[in-house]
Amino acid sequence: MQQPLYILSGGSSRTRGQAAQDSNIRAGKAVASAVRTTLGPRGMDKMLVDSSGEVVITNDGATILAKMDIEHPAAQMIVEVAETQEEAVGDGTTTAAVLTGELLVHAEDLLEGDLHPTVIVEGYTEAARLAQEAIDAQVLDVDLDDDLLETVAESSMTGKGTGDVTADVLAQHVVRAVRMVHAENGRFDRDDVRVLTRTGASSSATELIEGVVIDKDPVNDTMPTSVEDATVAVLDVKLDVRKGEVDTEYTISSVEQLDAALKAEDDELRGYAKAFADAGVDVVFCTKSISDRVAGHLANAGILAFKSVKKSDARAIARATGAKRLGSATDLDESDFGRADSVSIETYGDDDLVFVEGGDASKAVTLFLRGGTEHVVNELERAINDAIDVTVAALDKGGVVPGAGATEIAIADHVRAEAAGIEGRKQLAVEAFADAVEALPRTLAENTGMDPIDALVDLRARYENEGIAGVISSGRSGEIGDPVEHGILDPAAVKREAVESATEAATMIVRIDDVIAAE
């Protein structure tokens, strides 16, 4: 008899065939179900507690999945779906995760019916293409004016924790912010809209600052705390005694030589302040260190200076004010500097915040968010970031579509209609895809307090009669209505990305029939 051949190490485990498929699908379904109840305006929050005791309370799908300690590789793929959705369009992470889970649910039924995984993958891929056609057909032929963009931003924040400030007020701030920095040629730099949070006031104290706000103290307490019509310099160089590239020793044999060396050193440090003063600089932002002696000379010259500024903050200030980031403090030219109407220091609790506002600084904006607790401002920050992303997505990536599950109902109807013309067993997978998409409005209805089966029947009937139907939250329950009339709109890009990423993840999981794990 032949000796047994061992390919895997003794500590490895292997799961094959239906057992591997069942394990992967169950893991994917479990993760999707974890965020399912957060979907929609009546979605519930999750409390996440890590091993160190840090608590996060949110209904943001991306945050929930990122904070969950997930080990199963197939379940981790659902997390990657949410991450991809977040990076691409900034919203719709829960939608993408729930859709992936539903596609796996229906794939499981198809596998039990002896449908080959390859056929399921082909059917899902074809259905995803049909879904994209349906989304394109749902794009509204409207001008994306401020009112419409505010509707989009508000829709993305509905159901999220915003403290004592309403979503419509925050939406106005968001649209103003995006409009201020969004170039007419369609170019938008996400870094031009900054978000800064501070506790100590209610959420209604949130405001839009036309400029940049950073958390930094001046290098000397005697420096001015406010400068009007400021000339701004941004440096990436130390303001200290220069050191040679090689070690050098000097022999000093007299007090006169020591005094001369100290004077030369002081002249060099004093020269930094003189150079800035002679160039008319009022404020210096330095990403590196500023020695105490230089700080004293700058203070004596009436110059406000900050050291160890984060590179991201320095980049924002330079971009906002029109300043160049300088690698040398010599040979300064007026064209190297930026301009701002004002640079001021304001105290919030124990922190000093620097406001760089107006003039050229209005090329960048800061949404300054307030809240009574860290939990409030953190959730508010997540809501605002989603609103910014969907507003930009609506402007730059293909317009808007009806929300409240209406687009999903249209997708399901279109996919089913086209499925009749698809030959073979692949038709079953295409129809299953339509059923999976309908789980989204069904979940919305359930989270709103409606009977999900009755709601789905009513949605289908109204769509057949009127061509549009969505789940509208009303009072303690909901109703079937026209989401466009109720101002519930979503960026088309969010729907497109959710369908694409969910289909890719589900088909990848379905195709796996062998799991080899090292222990």
From TrEMBL:
Alphabetical keyword list: ATP-binding, Chaperone, Nucleotide-binding
Domain of life: Archaea
PANTHER family: CHAPERONIN
Name this polypeptide is given: Thermosome subunit
Annotated family: Belongs to the TCP-1 chaperonin family.
Protein's organism: Halogeometricum salsisoli
Pfam family, one: Cpn60_TCP1
Keyword Oxidoreductase: no
